Design the sequence.
């Protein structure tokens, strides 16, 4: 098994992007951060064998946080390496790193991010004409201050993970 990152390991190592990686970079699907973190993880894996089979599926950056999606069951690996990662990351600045597992279920995701806060309702809306789906999550307004991230950040994050627009509403 070998490490999988959000772009090719060879492209990270040589800092010379292949066409596919360059396209992903131009589209904003990956960034300099993906390259920096990738290189750190590859170097850390030399002396930390548990990182050898790590799979990073997605990295979502917001102004205050960086969210790293790993394969199911691999959060522990990132947590174990966390201090070493932080030590070497130059471009993190004041942002915080969050790790989470891949999921396709909005319910699981919201539970992972907001536990113990639960939505009152979760509605999937199918929009004409192409049947594109969007999710509307309703919460009691008293929870607004308890939610760890601003609604706009949550929305950006869940939209990127689930590949669907996600709206957080407080009533
Ligand atoms: Zn590449």
Sequence:
């Amino acid at each position: 098994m070998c490490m999988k990152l959000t772009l090719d390991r060879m492209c990270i190592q040589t800092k010379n992007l292949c066409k596919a990686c360059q396209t992903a970079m131009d589209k904003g699907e990956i960034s300099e951060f993906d390259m920096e973190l990738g290189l750190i993880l590859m170097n850390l894996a030399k002396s930390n064998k548990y990182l050898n089979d790590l799979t990073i599926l997605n990295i979502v950056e917001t102004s205050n946080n960086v969210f790293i999606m790993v394969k199911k069951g691999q959060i522990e690996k990132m947590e174990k390496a966390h201090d070493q990662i932080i030590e070497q990351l130059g471009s993190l600045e004041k942002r915080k790193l969050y790790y989470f597992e891949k999921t396709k279920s909005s319910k699981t995701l919201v539970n992972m991010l907001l536990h113990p806060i639960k939505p009152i309702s979760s509605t999937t809306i199918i929009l004409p004409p192409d049947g594109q789906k969007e999710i509307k999550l309703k919460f009691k307004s008293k929870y607004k201050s308890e939610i760890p991230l601003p609604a706009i950040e949550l929305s950006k994050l869940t939209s990127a993970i689930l590949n669907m627009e996600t709206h957080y509403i407080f009533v």
Remarks:
- The chain has two domains: 9-101, 106-170.
